[in-house]
């Protein structure tokens, strides 16, 4: 099991990153919240989970070990694959996921693209007794995240991340417009926070 990668980011896309580890470029699939915190040419540490299928070995990367543990927990529920687990972590932070499952908050869970009411009920039933086993004692592996910078920069990153999760360019642009007041009101807000806010507006639409 590859649990962590540390190295230099040599390639970066909306939903993936290639990390140079001692001369070996290792590709990890990441949620947009994670890639928003990375910069090409800069050092990075990612918590990772290796998903083994009959025809593939896929490494998924996360900003914190807690996110990785929730990813693996979510995939233990019936009908939840890697893509859906990543989408859940893009919409809800680990603490929000823990609370939603523990309190049977189906409304919060159905904000995740691809999770309907029945799917949310199944997640609650299967994971409610397990969710508190994941304690928030992991060190933060990635930085808190860069500030959004100028309007064009953060909109481009958030839009690409949303499209990487399956939203159309039109929907992604509309979501960016709905959260642009957050960037204007708080210059220190991170791109990851803007991404999460944009995803929530899409879930409500």
From TrEMBL:
Keyword hit for Iron: no
Q: Which residues does the UniProt record annotate as the domain Helix-hairpin-helix DNA-binding motif class? A: 72-91, 107-126
Under SUPFAM superfamilies, the record lists:
DNA helicase RuvA subunit, C-terminal domain (SSF46929), Nucleic acid-binding proteins (SSF50249), RuvA domain 2-like (SSF47781)
Task: Locate the region Domain III.
Answer: 151-205
Keyword check for Transferase: no
Q: Where in the cell is it found?
A: Cytoplasm
One Gene Ontology cellular component term attached to this UniProt record is: Holliday junction resolvase complex
> Which Gene3D superfamilies does the protein's record reference?
5' to 3' exonuclease, C-terminal subdomain (1.10.150.20), DNA helicase RuvA subunit, C-terminal domain (1.10.8.10), Nucleic acid-binding proteins (2.40.50.140)
- Enumerate the Gene Ontology biological process terms: DNA recombination; DNA repair
Q: Which UniProt keywords apply?
A: ATP-binding, Cytoplasm, DNA damage, DNA recombination, DNA repair, DNA-binding, Helicase, Hydrolase, Nucleotide-binding
Which Gene Ontology terms cover its molecular function? ATP binding; four-way junction DNA binding; four-way junction helicase activity
Q: Which InterPro entries match?
A: DNA_helicase_Holl-junc_RuvA_I, Hlx-hairpin-Hlx_DNA-bd_motif, NA-bd_OB-fold, RuvA, RuvA_2-like, RuvA_C, RuvA_C_sf
Domain statement: Has three domains with a flexible linker between the domains II and III and assumes an 'L' shape. Domain III is highly mobile and contacts RuvB.
* Subunit structure of this chain's protein: Homotetramer. Forms an RuvA(8)-RuvB(12)-Holliday junction (HJ) complex. HJ DNA is sandwiched between 2 RuvA tetramers; dsDNA enters through RuvA and exits via RuvB. An RuvB hexamer assembles on each DNA strand where it exits the tetramer. Each RuvB hexamer is contacted by two RuvA subunits (via domain III) on 2 adjacent RuvB subunits; this complex drives branch migration. In the full resolvosome a probable DNA-RuvA(4)-RuvB(12)-RuvC(2) complex forms which resolves the HJ.
Its function, per the record, reads: The RuvA-RuvB-RuvC complex processes Holliday junction (HJ) DNA during genetic recombination and DNA repair, while the RuvA-RuvB complex plays an important role in the rescue of blocked DNA replication forks via replication fork reversal (RFR). RuvA specifically binds to HJ cruciform DNA, conferring on it an open structure. The RuvB hexamer acts as an ATP-dependent pump, pulling dsDNA into and through the RuvAB complex. HJ branch migration allows RuvC to scan DNA until it finds its consensus sequence, where it cleaves and resolves the cruciform DNA.
**To which protein family does this belong?**
Belongs to the RuvA family.
The protein's name in its UniProt record: Holliday junction branch migration complex subunit RuvA
């Amino acid at each position: 099991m590859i649990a962590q990668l540390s190295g230099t980011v040599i390639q970066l896309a909306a939903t993936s990153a290639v990390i140079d580890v001692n001369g070996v470029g290792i590709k990890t699939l990441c949620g947009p919240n994670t890639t928003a915190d990375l910069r090409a040419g800069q050092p990075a540490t990612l918590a990772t989970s290796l998903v083994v299928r009959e025809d593939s070995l896929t490494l998924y990367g996360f900003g914190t070990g807690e996110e990785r543990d929730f990813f693996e927990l979510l995939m233990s529920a019936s009908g939840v694959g890697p893509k859906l687990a990543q989408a859940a972590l893009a919409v809800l932070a680990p603490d929000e996921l823990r609370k939603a499952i523990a309190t049977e908050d189906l409304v919060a869970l159905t904000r995740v693209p691809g999770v309907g009411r029945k799917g949310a009920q199944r997640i609650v039933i299967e994971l409610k007794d397990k969710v508190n086993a994941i304690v928030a004692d992991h060190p933060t592996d990635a930085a808190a995240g860069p500030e959004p910078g100028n309007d064009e920069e953060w909109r481009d990153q958030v839009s690409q991340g949303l499209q990487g999760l399956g939203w159309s360019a039109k929907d992604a642009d509309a979501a960016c417009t709905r959260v642009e007041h957050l960037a204007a009101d708080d210059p220190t807000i991170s791109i990851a926070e803007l991404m999460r806010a944009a995803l929530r507006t899409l879930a409500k639409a």
